[in-house]
Structure prediction request, 569 residues.
Amino acid sequence: MILELHIEHVAIIDRLDITFQRGLNVLTGETGAGKSIIINALNLILGDRASDDLIRSQEDQGVVEALFDISHNAAVKTQLQELDMAADDTLLIRRVLSRNDRSRIYINGQLATLQMAGGIGEFLLNIYGQHQHQMLRRPETHLDILDEFGGLLTERSTVQSVYQTLNDLDSRLKALREQSERVEHDRDLWTFQVSEIDAAKLAPEEEDELTAERHLLKNAQRLLDLIGSCESILHSGDNAVIEQLGRAEEEMTALAELDQEFSRVKTLIQSAQVQVQDVAHELTRRLGKMNTDPGRLEEVELRLDEIHRLKRKYKVPDVTELLAHRDRIHESLRQIGNATDEITRLEGRRRELLHDLTRAAANLSEGRQKAAQRLVKEVEKELHTLKMARTTFEVQTRPPAAKGDRIETDEGLITSRGREEIEFMIAPNVGEDPKPLSRIASGGELSRIMLAIKKILTMGIGTQTLVFDEVDAGIGGTAANVVGQKLRDLARYHQILCVTHLPQIAAFGHAHYRVTKAESDDRTVSSIQRLEGEEVLDEIARMLAGAGATLTTRTQAQEMLQHARREYS
Prediction:
C-alpha cells in the first residue's frame, strides 16, 4: 500500500505531502482544485511519459515521490531482486521532471527506467478511470480476471508448466535438427575418410621406421662393403686382428713366466680377444640380415608415398596427427548417430507432452466456460446496483492469435495461457450489440465495472492499492450510496484511494482529504488537508449544498455519516 506521497512544483502544486491510511481514503474538493493532479502524479510514479507543461511555472524541475509498504507484496520484492535492487519492507519511487534535461526516475535511490518503474508499478497501484494504467483497457488482463474469479489459477499454472516444458523441448529439438542437417551432407565424406585412413593401417612410429629403412636400403651395397671389410680386418682376413692378438697372447704368456707383473697385461689381451670376437660375430650377423632386395626398397618407397599423400590431403604434419584427425571424424559420426537417437527420443517425449498440454488446456477451457457464465451473472447483478441496470456484459472467447509464442495441436493453437483469448464486451444501451469494453466504455463506466469486478473478487490474490477516479460519473442518490458501500466493502481487503464529488460516497471514507486551491503571492497554489471530526461533517455539508452549507445540509451530512458508520460498526 502507498504510505506517503510528495509532490513538488507540479502544475499548480508548489509543495504537497499526503500520508495515506489503510482502508478507504477519499479525496474531495471543488473542480479544478488539484485532485486530478494528484492522480496524474501517481501515473508519473507508474512510468507515464511527462512533458514540460507539468512543471510549475517559473520552476526548472518538478518532483513526485511515493513511499510504499511492500512487506506483504512478494511480487514486488521478486521484481526488485531480479533487478538487483534492495527489497526491504518499504519502497521509494522518485520521479524528477526537468525542463533542461530528461525526466529521471529512481527506485530505492537507484536510477531506473520508466519501463522498470511501470513493471513494478503494476503490482503497486491500479488506477481506474481515464488513465493508461486502467487494466480493463488492456484485453490481455481480462483472462487474468476470469481465471482469478473461477479459481483456475492452479489449472492455468499446470498449462503454463507443461507449455514451458514443451517449448523448451521444441527448442532442443530444433537445435538438434539444425545440427543434424548441417552435418548430414558430410556423413558420406566423413565415412569415406575414416575408411581411407583405417585402410592404410597406420602406426604412430611407422613413418620414422620406414624412413630409416629406406636410408639403409639405398646404401645397402656400401654397408655390405664396409661390414665385410671390417669383419675381414678383425677376424677372417689374412693377418687379421684376432690372429695378431693370439700371437701377442702367446708372447705375453712367456713374459709372464719370466715376470709375474705381465700377468695383468696378458689378462687385458685376452679380454681384447673376446671383444674383437664379439664384434666380428655382430658384423657377421648384420651381414646376414642385410636386405639388398630392390623390391623391398620399392615397397618402402610406395608406403612412404602413401603416408605423405594422406598427410598432404588432410593437412597434418605427421602420422600421429593423422590418426587424431581420424578419431575426431569418427567421434563426429558417432555424435550424428547419437543426435538421431536423441531426436527420436525427444519426439516421443514431445508426443506425450503434447497430449498432456492438450488435456490440461481442455480442462482449463472447461473451467473458463463455467466461470464466464457465472462472472456474467455476477457482474451484471453488481452493475444493476451501480445505475447500469440496462448494461449487458459478455465474455467473448476466441482462439489465440496466429502470431507470437504458441504451439499447434490437433485441437488448435495453445499458448502458455491456454487455448483461448477472452475479451470483456458490454452493451451500455438496450438494443445495441455488445462491443469491446476497452474501446467504448467511458472512464466512469470502467471504474464502476472494475468496482463491480473487484467487489466480486474481494478475496482475490494479495493486497493492492486501488485508485478510483470518476467512479461517481453519471450517478447519484441511491446508486451513489451503493457505490460507497461497495468501496467500503472492498477497503476491507485493499487500500482504496477514491476521488469523488458525491457526499454519499465520501461519507464512507476511513480517511477524508480535502484538496483546495488559493492564491498566494499572486500565484495559484493547490494544497491538501486531512479532515477530522467536525471538519469531515463540514466538507460533506459543503458537497451537499455547494457554496454555503445550511443547518439542513449539516443535518443531512450528519445523517449520511451516521448511516455509513452504522453500516460498518
User: Anything to note?
Assistant: DSSP finds 18 helices and 17 strands in the chain. The longest strand covers residues 511-520. Residues 319-384 form the longest helix (66 residues).
